[in-house]
Amino acid sequence: MTDRPVGRSTAMRAQVGVANASGKVTPMPADPGSRRTPAFDAVTRAELLDASLPELHHRAASVRDAAFGTRMTFSPKVFIPLTMLCRDRCGYCTFAKAPARLESPYLSIEQVLDIARAGRAAGCHEALFTLGEGPEDRYPAAAGWLADHGYTSTVDYLAAACAAVLEETGLLPHANAGALSGADLATLRAVSASQGMMVESTNPELDAHRSAPDKVPARRLATMEAAGRLAIPFTTGLLVGIGESRADRLDTLEAIAASHARHGHIQEVIVQNFLPKPGTSMHRHPPCPTDEFLWTIAAARLMLPTDIHLQAPPNLSDELGPLVGAGIDDWGGVSPVTADHVNPERAWPALGILRAATEAAGHVLAPRLTLYPEFALHPDTWLDPALRFPVMDASDAEGLGRDHPWASGGEFPPPELLPPLVVPDSPTRPAVATRAPTGGAVAEVLEGVLAGQTVGEDEIVTLFGARGPEVRAVAEVADQLRYDIVGDEVTFVANRNINYTNVCTFKCKFCAFSKGPLSLNLRGTPYLLELSDITDRVAEAEAMGATEVCLQGGIHPKFDGDYYLEVIKAVRQASSTIHIHGFTALEVTEGARRSEMALADYLVLLRDAGLRTLPGTAAEVLDDDVRAIICPDKINTEEWLEAHRAAHSVGLNSNVTIMFGSVEQPRSWARHLVRTRELQLETGGFTEFVPLPFVHMATPIYIQRKARRGPTFRETVLMHAVGRIAYRGAIDNIQLSWVKMGAAGARQLLRSGVNDLGGTLIDENISRAAGASHGQMMDADGFRALVAPLGRTLAQRTTLYGRVIHPDGHDSVLAGVR
Ligand code: SF4
């Protein structure tokens, strides 16, 4: 028995790109530098043609699960039908209209922008331009309209419309303009984040395409090739049930795989089922049989390399579960605003229905951009420079779409990621489901955690990928660990920040606080406090009930190592007992360097003068690839770790911070957690973990369009929860930064492993400088109001987690604290 179907000419097979001599379709790695490795055994055409449907589905779903886990993506988008005129007459199409049936040959730019703005308001990331092909070649009305408006072609006008949408709304254009020349594709690449064109079928003899010059397979394949040469993230696909055979579909899939092997540019393949429509020449043609459709999906998953995503439109099938079962990992574009103009009789499912169907099938839903993460995270290769920031601005840390407008430090309330709170009558251990409801890798890691295992770098990355019910499961496990380790008390410390100078010789690109000569002069003016000012502020803080002062500042060019000793003396002049928490790893490293002393010796001097603990700031992200971007002249990972190792060795405690959400990915977060955990197991000197979500608004790196807009709220919840899980047995306290979170966000974090609210922070300056708007100070009443709805108790702590008990009637900022 031959391994290939018979009945197709050698010439046709050559045209579409054939499998090797044995008939094996082996996906080929392409695009060095991206994650392009085949993840499944080659499958033969004969196997695909002969296998039973259940067997094929099982194999396809296994391949999909191995490649993409539980994640099912969709693109929240608006559809913009720029023109419904088309020079082709496909037998199934109701999209194309005659000029007499349209008010205008083209949408105006204002009409385009109205649609895009509505999409923006509804949380969309993508503007999908759907349009007929080359209408000016067929209709004088189209050619006349273009000439009257100063455009040379439909593609010329499409480029202008894409540019307007990008500029005015930030939505990422996806141009779907059919069979184009390389020059046209290049024009559109400059204003779109991705492009697409359905191959439909490589069978050149289909009646459906008899009057469609642009549907000649050679033209479609040439367009796909040209897109590959231009490094355009490209979407293509098959239309199933228009008269082609199964063998034709395999030919089409082979052609797509072959082009991808050459260029690595095919991001997704859409498998779309034909449905007959009244008013078309194929209205009597039977719809694509469900079995044929599902067979094609499974065959596509098994034939295509696993770095190509597989999509089936959710509005063209009555049941969604079987599509998941056949191997898709993407639902394609779903619009909360516009109809599917190609299939207007089939409404998009509401997002809630899509989510429910996805979760019922054991998967989790995640919004994506018009281009997939494999492309978004390699912008130098795949994007025109003009598109790089708009893509980054819409991205989360995994290169998927941001799922909510919340930003750390901003006013927008966070989404509710956790189930409604039920406060028990008396303290009880938080309930934890034994498994994440979805199964999959996140659930496996959590099962290991509940069994007492320690998570490594890969497991931490897996947890950071949690979505939907998986996020709830991670938070639940973290909350249970929090209860087991530190109980139900929520602690805070009464402290005052003293930022003695905002002048700094370093040029950290995320820092809106420093006012060095080379920084962007964003807010305020440079200052350096007098030592007497520091003394006065300490006295004032102690009178208000503070037990700690937190000393941090820029690295002033005039400072020598003695300056930090002078600051400690100034504090001690006001108070002999207040806890001095001060000087980052950078400051002590610089102080030692400027004093020409060994770091440990310098730390002993500071300790003997009165320093008690060091803040963990200056850690940012402990991954030197990231530091090279955000703080290239600062101490590196080893130097930060060494400063804290030295501090711990001379009896100074410190904490771990992480500033996350600017340019890095979850792998860097995992490295940060693992490296600091290793040091903690060596020294035991860290008192707490303090995630610091990047506040983007006024930072140089965001203003220069080189960073994301901070973490998403989902990522923020996960950072606290995963921190709790990763540091189990090493660091007992997980602290949230209320300045960056606000009350509603803080409450969800307190249910995700957090037990500490940090300081009252009289005079909080650094987050405010970056644009945070949650105030400069929180008193005990404020903390109590935050904690009370959770049924947890509030306790004032010392810096080192002793308890502060005030006599009744205390009149400080901490009045009433028990
Ligand atoms: S983060 Fe610190 S070291 Fe960096 S510029 Fe700002 S003040 Fe200077």
Report what the structure shows.
With 818 residues, this protein is of the alpha/beta class. It is built from 30 helices and 21 strands. Strands 3, 4, 5, 6, 7, 8, 9, 10 and 11 form a 9-stranded parallel β-sheet that branches. Strands 13-14-15-16-17-18-19 form a 7-stranded parallel β-sheet. The N and C termini lie far apart (83 Å). The structure holds iron/sulfur cluster.
- Please give the number of β-strands: 21
Q: What is the CA-CA span between the terminal residues?
A: 83 Å
Q: Sketch the major β-sheet.
A: 9 strands, parallel
Mean pLDDT over all positions: 89
What small molecules are bound in this structure? iron/sulfur cluster
Work out the helix count: 30
Q: SS-based structural class?
A: alpha/beta
The coarse overall form would be elongated
The helix content, as a percent range, equals: 25-40%
Low-pLDDT stretches: 1-40, 809-818
Name the beta content range: 5-15%
The Rg value, from CA coordinates, equals: 30 Å
Question: Layout of helices and strands, plus pairs?
Answer:
Elements: H1 10-16, E1 24-25, E2 43-44, H2 45-50, H3 53-68, E3 71-83, H4 109-121, E4 126-131, H5 140-148, H6 154-169, E5 172-176, H7 182-189, E6 194-196, H8 217-229, E7 234-240, H9 246-263, E8 266-273, H10 290-303, E9 309-311, H11 321-326, E10 330-334, H12 351-360, E11 364-367, H13 373-376, H14 379-382, H15 385-394, H16 440-450, H17 457-464, H18 469-486, E12 490-493, E13 495-498, H19 531-543, E14 548-551, H20 561-574, E15 579-582, H21 585-595, H22 599-609, E16 611-614, H23 624-630, H24 637-649, E17 653-660, H25 666-683, E18 686-693, H26 700-703, H27 713-726, E19 733-734, H28 738-750, E20 756-759, H29 766-770, H30 780-787, E21 794-797
Parallel strand pairs: 3-4, 3-10, 3-11, 4-5, 5-6, 6-7, 7-8, 8-9, 12-20, 12-21, 13-14, 14-15, 15-16, 16-17, 17-18, 18-19
Antiparallel strand pairs: 1-2
The structure holds iron/sulfur cluster.
